[in-house]
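U., I forgot to send this yesterday:
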Amino acid sequence: MLGAIAGDMIGVPWEALGEKRYDFPLFTEFSRFSDDTAMTLAVAHALLEKRDYAQALREFGRRYPAIGYGAHFERWIYDDSMGPYNSYGNGGAMRAGPIGFAARSAEEALAEAARCAAPTHSHPEGIKGAQAVSLAVFLARSGASKPEIRREIATRLGYDLGRTVEAIRPAYTFDVAAERSVPEALICFLDAGDFEGAVRNAVSLGGDADTMACIAGSIAEAHWGEVPEPIAAEVRKRLPEELLAILERFYARFGR
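Result:
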């Protein structure tokens, strides 16, 4: 949860700039939360209150407008009659982290991720991206090793996770398609030695930096058990009290 938000905030200043540096400053004056954080916490809220995912996503989208939503998703937020629009983007994946923390089994993680993605990202690739993130978080917080996580995701969902960040980085470009960003975000975690390294890997690919760092950060927190305190402190002071309260309630219910 906090890991996803940290990745989002750290990635925002670098989104779509094509920046390939690994040693970029973690926080700048432009570091803020975006749609990735708002939707992640909307899902957390839905899990806490046993609410319909679509209702919670629309509610939070209207409460926190103009923070980076895609055009189709923004239209969906304000049009209650609009159904799924078959998106194959990574928006379903970036909000799926809380499901992995709350799930009681791998099967539940996969099923709930599909339900959470379906109101908007109903394309099979959009759903698969959400399932990959949810399952990776569930496995990581359940104590699975990186090789086990790599094997389970590859076997169940067919992602090629045998590449490395160093091999991907030179030719990688901005891409919001789940099939071309979610596997890369997973590899950013798998190739990292600590939480900060996972987020730096994601931003350094020069793609959809905030969303990919949000995904990598979510899994990294589940794997290492916490977000380093200097990073956590920076994140907390940039987050509204209402969103902080949801975060703390989620931790109290589902653990860290």
